[in-house]
Amino acid sequence: MPTELTTPQHLEGLRAALVSFVRYAERAGLRAPVPTCPDWTVRHLVAHQGMVHRWAAAALRGERVEPDDLEREGRSSPDPLEWLRDGAVEVAAAVTNAPERVAAPVFLLDAPPARAFWARRQCHETTIHAVDALAASLGRYPRGSETWIDPVLARDGIDELLGGFLPRPRSRLRRPEETTLVVAPTDGPDWWRVQIGAHPPVTTRRTGPVEEADVTLTGPSVGLYLTLWNRSDAEEDCVDSRGVLDDWRDLSAVRWA
Questions:
Q1: Which residues does 253 contact at the CB level (< 8 Å), separation at least 6?
Q2: pLDDT score, position 173
């Protein structure tokens, strides 16, 4: 099962993330730098997210759009946050109106059917970039406890990252010696085992007692979610048993969103 959350749950996660995104973007101001996305201002962040919403909606409708044109539209909008809201409404409507078995592209391994895939992907895309807006309002990387994110949603996002993004051939997380990585939230039943070596990682999701591993990452679900997406540097968010996070940040290019 690539996800146990329903499409309505993912759309609710998208809605909650959008509300937080707008709140923190307004608090920071459009010119504020985004610590978690170097070289971006909040205006760049808003334009990027609004572009992705419209691009995803077009994919579900079987249409082609030019992402660069959409992003320029967002950067030049007289009301970028209203433009952001419009894009979120558009992608939510596209998901809601799509047939259950719509023939739309997906791009992750272990992906659910296209309608569910895009609801999930836009939920987590928007959530992570709303965390970027929070970082801009704080002027630093946030802690998991400072976010609105539900632990159940966070564990779904961890699963998407480890089971969908990480095993793709384009991911760059490699090690010269075979290494077993375990990601084990302290507040949920699921944990993930990732085999890292010379080839794309292999991920399995498990329940029950956590097994021994070469490297174990553990902490609250929301903290792990942010840490694995390179959106937290707080020690309370993730305990790293053997310093693998430096390799994770340097080699895996885990700035997927």
A1: 171, 172
A2: 83
Asked if the model's pLDDT at residue 163 lies above 70, the reply is yes
Sheet containing strand 239-240, strands side by side? 202-207, 190-196, 179-185, 215-219, 239-240
Q: Has residue 19 got a pLDDT over 50?
A: yes
The verdict on pTM exceeding 0.70 is: yes
The predicted structure's pLDDT at residue 242: 65
Cβ neighbours of residue 13 closer than 8 Å, sequence gap 6 or more: 5, 123, 124, 126, 127, 150, 153
Following DSSP, what letter does each residue of 106-117 receive, concatenated? --STT---HHHH
What lies within 8 Å, CB to CB, of 223 at 6+ separation is: 143, 144, 145, 232, 234, 236, 237, 238
- 251 has pLDDT over 50: no
Between strands 190-196 and 215-219, the pairing is unpaired
According to DSSP, the residues that pair with 11 across neighbouring strands are: none
d(CA 138, CA 141): 8
Using an 8 Å Cβ cutoff, are 71 and 45 in contact?
no
Helices (H), 62-167: 67-76, 80-97, 114-138, 151-160
- pLDDT range class, residue 256, cuts 50, 70, 90: very low
DSSP symbol at 236 = G
